[in-house]
Each structure stands twice: as C-alpha cells, then as structure tokens.
Amino acid sequence: MFSRDFGLTETQRDIRAMAAEFVDTEIVPHARDWDRDERVDPRIVRRLGELGFLGLGVPEEYGGVEADTLSYVLATEELGRGDSSVRGIVSVSLGLVTKTIVSHGTEAQRKEWVPRLVSGEALGCFALTEPGTGSDAGSLATRATRDGDDWVIDGTKMFITNGTWAKVALLFARTGESAVTAFLVPTDTPGFTATEIHGKLGLRGQATAELVLDGVRVPDSARIGEVGKGLGIALGALSRGRISVAAGAVGVAQAALDAAVAYSVEREQFGKPIASFQLVQELLADAAVDVHASRLLTHQVARMADAGAGPKEYATDASAAKYHAAETAVRVSNNCLQVFGGYGFIDEYPVGKYLRDARVLTLYEGTSQVQKLIIGRALTGVNAMA
Fold first, then answer.
1. Which residues on adjacent β-strands are paired with residue 269?
2. Chain-centre distance of CA 263, in angstroms?
C-alpha cells in the first residue's frame, strides 16, 4: 500500500497516531447514532480541547499547541475519517475563527477569546454566507452602521457551521458602498438569534444554523482588523480553511476505501470473496490512487504554508487541493458504495454516510466551480467572471 510516512517527522507521526486513536475509540463507535440523531454529543467539544485539537498551531501563551500546518492536516484527515461533522467543528472554530483572531485580532481580543476557544469552553462560527450571497462574498447585504462608539448590525447569515453552539461569531458586514468589515460578535448579544437547520443530506451531526441580527449593538473594540478590510480577512481565512477541508475530504475518502476493502474480503458471491473479482479490484485500485493523489496535493500546500508562504501565495494550490480532494471524496465514496451493493444503501454500514458527507465538500468554502475559476485565473491572468 502507499506510504503515508514519507517525509514526516516523529512529532507529526505522533500527532497523527494520537488523532487516529481518538477517532477509533471516541468517534467511530458513535458516528452512526450521531448521524441518526442529527447531533453529535456536545461533550466531544471538551474532549477536542483537552487533547489539543482545538489549539493546533496556536501559540502556547494562549493555551494552544505549537504545531505546524502539516500536523494540523494530519489530525484533520483523521477526524474526517471518523466523522466529517466533528472535523467541521474543528476546521471552523480553530481554522477559520481562532487562527483569524490570532492573526488579525488585538491583544485584548486574543486574551478574551483564544484561551476559551482552544480549551473547548467556547466554539466560534464563521458568519460570512448569506441567503443571497454564497460564492459572491463581496455582495453582502448584512450591514454594520456606526453609532457613536458602537456599531449596529442588521442582517441574516445562512448555513453557518457551529451556529447554535458558538459563543462568538466572526461576522462580516458591509460598512460602506464597497467596504466589508469583520467583527467578533458574542452570540448572547441582544438581537442575535440562531436557528438550527435540520433535514440536511450530510453532516447531519453538525450544528448548522441560520443567524438573524436585528439591531445587534457591539462596541468598536469588537471590530477585528481595519474598517473596510474585512473581505481580505475573510478570503485569507478561506484559503487557510481550504487546506483543512481538503484534508477532511481525504479522510472521508480513506474511510470509504477502508470500509470497501474490508467488506470485499468478507463478502462472498459465487463461492468466493468479491475481492477476487477483477472489476471490484479495479474500483478499489482507482479509489486508492485517487486518495493518494489528493493526500499528496494537500500535504504539498501544507508544506508551502510551513515554509513561510502566505495565504495569497498558496491560494491557488489550496484551491487545487480542495477541488481535487472534494471531488475525489464524492467519486471514491460512490464507487465504494457500489462494492457494498444493496447493503451500502442502508446505514447499518457506514459507506452511505461517507457519500452524503462527501457531497457538501464540493459546495462549501467555495464550490468546485469557484475553485476552477481561481485556478483558471491563475493560469491565464484573465478573470472569467469579469
């Protein structure tokens, strides 16, 4: 089988092994029930904090764990292998919110929020998407209006991961004709309401919400970054976030492949294991190569970040990794379901859940089509959307 250890340090292998053990003992046994209940056990958040998964790459002075981007990717892949809903909790709260506060927040904001977020005492949500603006992040309708030393925010956000569990929202609002500004908004602020969205195809255990802000008043000290610089903050966070989404997609695809391989050896037809049939081996071989290629793409962009490249420098590579890994997760989980035949269609086996969870990976943090536009623009220098 393909090597997963080439070039990894002992520390990186240890972090992956710890994540794998946690996933196998505390996530996998419960994933089906959480999916059926449309709710992961809330206690898992504290466990993620205790084990350091909510603080990977955050400075120790704020309670974090000194770790490079590749270590974060290795842990995220394992979480994705266990349950993409749990992986999403970490990717959003840590990858999009906590790390943005560390990078762009004031010292007071870091001291107020980062220790709580990395410990699991609090979660963060990334409030960018709106009912009418998904990929078109520059057309936000939510507005923040200056009122003395405060800002008053009105608007609606949609499909917000961690929305009903979060204690703080990293929220983006229009503050001028073409200006977007970022704010840290405590979710218990008067006028802030979160309503959970049920009936999702996948990621059913994850708390996804609609947020409504009706005259939400926050002080100017809640602003993160300069006025009018919020869109750049959001896009930088999404470039970083696409690395963890890619890693999570690799994890989903690996889980589907592992399940299909195990089933193919056990399941007999015509007096022999179906693993002996050439077309089954072809499905598994294609899946294995696709998973390996996505893993290498994801590791490559993580290594770029660790070498000092900034989000703008690795943005195209992150888009390539996210696009390839997300599409791979859908294709691999679909083909692995085929190996199970009719049994793949019931949730006694996990492969149907992998397919459902994989599908959303092609949609959020930039659809596959948006990733191709980014890659195409980098190749040609021409903005196809202009």
1. 272
2. 29
Q: One-letter amino acid identity for 247?
A: A
Tokens at residue 312, please? 């703008």
Residue 247: closest CA among 293, 294, 206: 294
DSSP state of 97: I
Q: What is the pLDDT of residues 108-133, one digit of tens each?
A: 999 999 999 999 999 999 999 999 88
Decide: 307 and 284 in contact? Cβ < 8 Å: no
The string over 130-153, giving b where at least 16 C-beta atoms fall within 10 Å of a residue's C-beta and e elsewhere, is: beebbeebeebebebeeeeeebbb
Q: Give CA angle at 249 (296, 158), nearest 5°.
A: 135
Domain(s) labelled CATH 1.10.540.10 in the chain stretch across 10-123
Structure-token pair, residue 11:
């520390």
Hey, what CATH class is 231-380 in?
A: mainly alpha
Answer yes or no: 365 catalytic: yes
| pLDDT tens track for 20-62 | 999 999 999 999 999 999 999 999 999 999 999 999 999 999 9
* CA 47 to each of CA 54, 167, 212: distance values in angstroms, whole numbers, following the listed order: 9, 17, 30
Dihedral angle at the C-alpha atoms of 261, 264, 267, 269, nearest 10 degrees?
180
* 3-state secondary structure (DSSP) of residue 13: helix
Angstrom CA distances, 54 to 96, 184, 262, 301, stand at: 11, 18, 32, 21
Q: Which residue among the candidates 38, 78, 130, 365 is catalytic per the annotation? A: 365
Question: Which amino acid would we find at residue 57?
Answer: G
- The pLDDT tens digits of the residues spanning 135-189 come to 777 789 999 999 999 999 999 999 999 999 999 999 999 998 889 999 999 999 9
| The CATH fold of domain 10-123 | Butyryl-Coa Dehydrogenase, subunit A; domain 1 (1.10.540)
Count how many Cα atoms sit within 13 Å of the Cα of residue 203 in the half-sphere of its side chain.
Answer: 26
List the alpha helices (DSSP H) in 91-168: 99-104, 107-119
Both ends of the chain: CA-CA distance in Å?
45
d(CA 156, CA 31): 31
Name the burial class of residue 168, with classes exposed (0-12), middle (13-18) and buried (19+) by CB atoms within 10 angstroms of its CB. buried
- Domain 125-227 matching CATH 2.40.110.10: the answer reads yes
